[in-house]
Specification:
Helix content: over 70%
Order of helices and strands: HHHHHHHHHHHHHHHHHHHHHHH
Number of helices: 23
Distance between the termini: 32 Å
Shape: globular
């Protein structure tokens, strides 16, 4: 079997595997919302491409798109974390087949390159290239620029795959993209206006003199081949390690958290939540990412003149407290799907577990509260604003997020990241995640239009506090509805293990 036939065979198998997944029907709703967002984004890109193309044709600078290309690639790199599984392959069944393992890896990598998400940027590049071509650029030069821009996007996809794979192994690899992208952003904050102008003049002269040469295209192509080869080797190496369950074991002291023994069964479940965060790669990785993002943006708001508008600051303040719940509680009970049968042994076991989860994620919010004290001290946030969003999260938002315990029925692998099963969110996870992220900010903005900002924050604070205090009642209601669906959910958990 040649590689072309193998590519189409593996592509067909992946589609069939997705259709057999227990969450296939629900995932269709998630895809529908994704298509709507891509359509809106494409319309905006068409407008931006037309505007910049007209500006470049007017100034006779056809290479203008390359000046802001680094920032587009940074945006593309960040968006892939929210939209792209890494890697998009299920190689586990093929490790025992007689086909070449490296050929299978290559087919899956090529499939990722042909993913539709890599072509979204064409809605910006095509109108730009067409307008500068109409402005006097030769046809071959326009085609070459279009190919060069798309090749940069493909290089970024391989760079993303490499970094995401390395970050899954160790969080210290975050330093590499931080240094690379920081070198593009930091100069705007540390250099004077005259120095920035001098840097731009040098870059524009360099780009204008060499962008349309064959050797510049060759350098980009060689970089793409190198990243592709590195990913090809690394994916096979790590997948074999994961399949064979190779782990580096270290002898270390394990805390028993004896202080939680006084809380009985809730204390035992609190220990489980803490140890899950400490030991499991997926949960620990999300926790560390949240701390890094919240700390970075808190310091940026505190010491830099950014996010001036009321909407931006309200959104970020909410995001500080929402992050941990948003990434974990939308999939509440999915990790427990690995041992859900044991939780059904004793009456109200799951209710106790839900209460322990609620107390744990409320306690976790003390960390972003301490981090946001820096913007409070610098005068960028008010204490009332921070407390309003803190109790908005522990109250209405957690009330909504915990509803997912009723509908989630797909087991979430804890450590298997490369060869894990399809983990796309179902329709309710998409709706709840977007609603909790933007709903409170829109409500507070509306209240601030009707009342003063302080009155709006007091309303949010008191509402959140009231719902927080009624936690025993709405958690029991969630538990009762879970029990009505227990057999349907158990079937889903069993099927997706």
């Amino acid at each position: 079997m040649n590689k072309i036939k193998l590519f189409f065979l593996l592509r067909k198998n992946v589609k069939l595997s997705n259709k057999r997944n227990v969450m296939f029907e629900a995932n269709q709703y998630g895809k529908f919302f994704g298509y709507i967002m891509v359509a809106i984004l494409s319309v905006e890109f068409l407008g931006l491409g037309t505007f910049f193309g007209w500006l470049a044709a007017k100034e006779q600078v056809p290479e203008m798109v390359l000046y802001f290309m680094p920032f587009l690639l940074i945006l593309d790199f960040g968006a892939r974390f929210a939209t792209q599984q890494t890697p998009m392959m299920l190689v586990k069944p093929y490790l025992l087949t007689p086909i070449s393992k490296y050929s299978a890896i290559e087919c899956f990598l090529i499939q990722q390159l042909l993913d539709g998400g890599n072509f979204v940027w064409m809605t910006l590049f095509l109108p730009y290239t067409f307008i500068v071509w109409c402005g006097g650029m030769t046809g071959w030069a326009a085609i070459g620029m279009l190919c060069l821009l798309h090749l940069m996007v493909l290089i970024n996809s391989q760079w993303y795959l490499l970094m995401r794979t390395l970050v899954n192994q160790s969080m210290w690899w975050w330093a590499l993209p931080a240094v690379l992208y920081g070198s593009c952003i930091v100069p705007f904050f540390v250099l004077s206006d005259s120095q920035i102008d001098a840097v731009f003049d040098f870059l524009s002269d360099t780009i204008a003199g060499h962008v349309f040469s064959w050797w510049s295209f060759g350098i980009v192509a060689v970089l793409f081949v190198i990243l592709f080869a590195i990913n090809r080797h690394m994916q096979m190496h790590l997948i074999y390690d994961e399949i064979s369950k190779k782990e580096k074991t270290k002898l270390k002291h394990v805390s028993e958290f004896k202080a939680l023994n006084r809380f009985g069964q809730i204390g035992e479940y609190l220990k489980l939540e803490i140890k899950s965060t400490m030991r499991n790669k997926a949960i620990r990785g999300r926790f560390i990412q949240g701390v890094c993002f919240i700390t970075f943006f808190s310091l940026a708001i505190s010491f830099l003149d950014i996010y001036r508008s009321s909407f931006e600051r309200n959104f970020f303040c909410l995001y500080c407290f929402l992050f941990f719940g948003s990434v974990n509680l939308t999939k509440v009970m999915c990790p427990e799907g690995n041992y859900i049968d044991l939780l059904m042994v004793h009456e109200e076991n799951i209710l106790t577990l839900l209460r322990a989860k609620y107390y744990y994620y409320c306690a976790v919010l003390l960390l972003p509260f301490l981090i946001t004290l820096v913007p409070i001290i610098m005068g960028k946030f008010s204490l009332l604003m921070v407390l309003a969003y803190l109790f908005t999260v522990t109250g209405p938002i957690y009330l909504i997020l915990f509803q997912m315990a009723v509908y989630n029925k797909q087991t979430l692998p804890l450590n298997e990241k490369l060869t894990g099963k399809n983990q796309m969110e179902n329709k309710w996870q998409i709706i709840v995640s977007l609603g909790t992220m933007f709903g409170p900010v829109l409500i507070i903005s509306l209240l601030q239009i009707i009342f003063s900002p302080d009155v709006a924050y007091w309303i949010m604070f008191l509402t959140g506090l009231a719902i927080t205090l009624t936690e025993p009642y709405w958690l029991r209601n969630i538990y009762r509805r879970m029990m009505l669906r227990r057999y349907e959910n158990l079937e889903g958990f069993h099927s997706s293990r």
